[in-house]
Amino acid sequence: MSTLAGIEGAALLDGVRRWLAESGADPTPARVAQALREQGRVLGDAEVLGAAAQLRSELVGSGPLEPLLADPSVTDVLVSAPDRVWVDRGGGLELTPVRFADAAAVRRLAQRLAAVAGRRLDDARPWADARLPDGTRLHAVLPPVAVGCACLSLRVVRPRAFTLGELVEAGTVPPGGDRMLRALVDARLSFLVSGGTGTGKTTLLSALLGLVGPDERIVLAEDSAELRPDHPHVVRLETRPANQEGAGLVTLEDLVRQALRMRPDRLVVGEVRGPEVVHLLAALNTGHEGGCGTVHANAATDVPARLEALGTAAGLDRAALHSQLAAALSVVLHLVRDRSGRRRIAEVHVLERDPSGLVRTVPALRWGAEAFVRERGWERLRGLLRGGASGSGPGGAGVGGGES
């Protein structure tokens, strides 16, 4: 289909765009043809249809990014300049041939997408973090905070979760590792999925939640609704920013408190990143077995320190935090991206208390091409999987510090 290109075409489209905005008309082919006549131009049918499609994509779609976002293999789309549009298809970032006309076109798209998501994005508030109606996660930053050009980050949420079998086929889970993960869910052990940005934490957690029994009620609390577990009974709660008057703020801490009143069989925090850690640990210590979530960490061994930092910032002293952690959490699944860009479970750790009473993680399994390789914490993990939630946590029955 023919489109309008070049400086003259861009100027013509700007004129059509202004006419449509002033008249309040939708960019239908008939309206575009009328707008073109108002500009003193008469075009053929193919050019009119091409201009209509181009304008409609820009005004109500995602513009030049639409083909990328429609590609089922794409997980992330990143725009850092008009001629720098990157995608991630699971193997690392790839530069695409997609181009914007100029930096102003990137800014217009960023502001329109933010408006669709109900967020303000302008010079007074030059960044926005939001979820689009189709579930896509949007983050945008405008100049001068973003130097030279508006920056867009779009994370595509699959309409359905990966199955555990698909993760084994993709190499995220080693052969046979799915049996251990199924046993982890069946035993109702509390666990965290850790890793860096883009390592697949949400993907793995969604797959694991799909293994939860259909008679159990899952309550999700998330900053942005990204988890898509294939499960018949899921309640989804999402945070909300304050409005322009500063009212209406709903935090993740608020959601965790509300979730506890909703009779959850499994309480899930999409990402533990703030004071909600206090309520989550308290919940996991008061009969809410099988709770889980994700946390950013460079390694499984860093998870206790990361939770300590979040807990102490929320007013929980170090000793109390570690006591809560010791009784609440059983397992850490740590994800990485290797040099080829493949996401995989690098380590599985269990928790134990050191002589000072602080919690530390102990490697139980590590990645192997043919299967998980057992480490010194394997016997503890095996005992937890056999004993279920009744033996969970480093202080649980039958899992003393010397057992590993």
Summarize the structure.
It is found in: Cytoplasm. Helix content is 34%, strand content 20%.
Overall description:
The chain is of the alpha/beta class. The protein folds into three domains: 7-57, no CATH class; 64-155, Beta-Lactamase (2-Layer Sandwich), CATH 3.30.450.370; 164-388, 3-Layer(aba) Sandwich (Rossmann fold), CATH 3.40.50. It contains 13 helices and 15 strands. It has helices at residues 6-23, 29-38, 45-60, 66-70, 103-116, 164-170, 177-186, 201-209, 252-259, 276-284, 303-313, 318-328, 378-387, and strands spanning 76-81, 84-88, 93-95, 127-131, 137-141, 151-155, 191-195, 218-222, 234-238, 266-269, 292-296, 331-337, 343-353, 359-366, 373-374. It has a nine-stranded mixed beta sheet, with helices on both faces. A six-stranded antiparallel beta sheet has the order 3-2-1-6-5-4, with helices on one face. β10 (266-269), α10 and β11 form a beta-alpha-beta unit. α9 (252-259) runs parallel beside α10 and α10 packs across α12 (318-328). It is elongated and about 80 Å long. This is Pilus assembly protein CpaF.
Question: Got a strand count?
Answer: 15
Give the CA-based shape: elongated
* Secondary-structure element series: HHHHEEEHEEEHHEHEEHEHEHHEEEEH
Alpha-carbon distance between the two ends: 66 Å
Structural class: alpha/beta
CATH architecture of the largest domain: 3-Layer(aba) Sandwich
CATH fold-level label of the largest domain: Rossmann fold
Number of helices: 13
What count of domains describes the coordinates? 3
User: Could you list the spans in which at least 5 consecutive residues all have pLDDT below 50?
Assistant: 1-8, 389-404
Mean pLDDT: 85
Residue share in helix: 25-40%
Q: What characterizes the major β-sheet? A: 9 strands, mixed
Strands of the widest sheet, in order across it, are 9-8-10-11-7-12-13-14-15
